[in-house]
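Work through this:
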Amino acid sequence: MNFPQLQVRTTDAKLGLNIEKPNQVIRQPKATQHIEQPAAIVEMNTTRGVMKIDSSQARRDVGMIGPLESISKFASEGRQKGMQGIARRASEGRQMMDIAHNSNAIASIAKKNTYPTQAKLGIDFIPSVGSVKLDYIPSKLDINVQTQKPTISAQVNKPTHEYTPGNVSGFMLQDSSIEIDFIV
């Protein structure tokens, strides 16, 4: 017995898609900055160093003296020698007055005046040690520094954003179908 048969054939629908991708651009501009550093204020005060050298004693030791000092020195020495001469002559006069009591007065006076005094022997250091006097006042340095703060100005720039949305569109590549056959 033959039974009637039903044959069904189907085809699936096929869908096609057109896709346009979205486009996005983000830019971040750099911040605008201005930095300024003023120079520090520096004040320096110095006093000069002072050196005093007194070599007057060393010059005197060598025999180099100024005109005023030499006049004073020679006048003093002349006065002293003059006084010594007066004293010697007064002494010799007294001896001569006493000639009756002292018979050797003329001989002793002649003996004193004929033999010079002996010179002192030895080594002298010219100029004498320590005759040059040094005095030094060191210099002073005062430094005053005033720092200056930097001036900073910064401006943040907003980002730029560009967006183009994408698009999807569909279309049918193949339509669906059903075929039914009836066989007896």
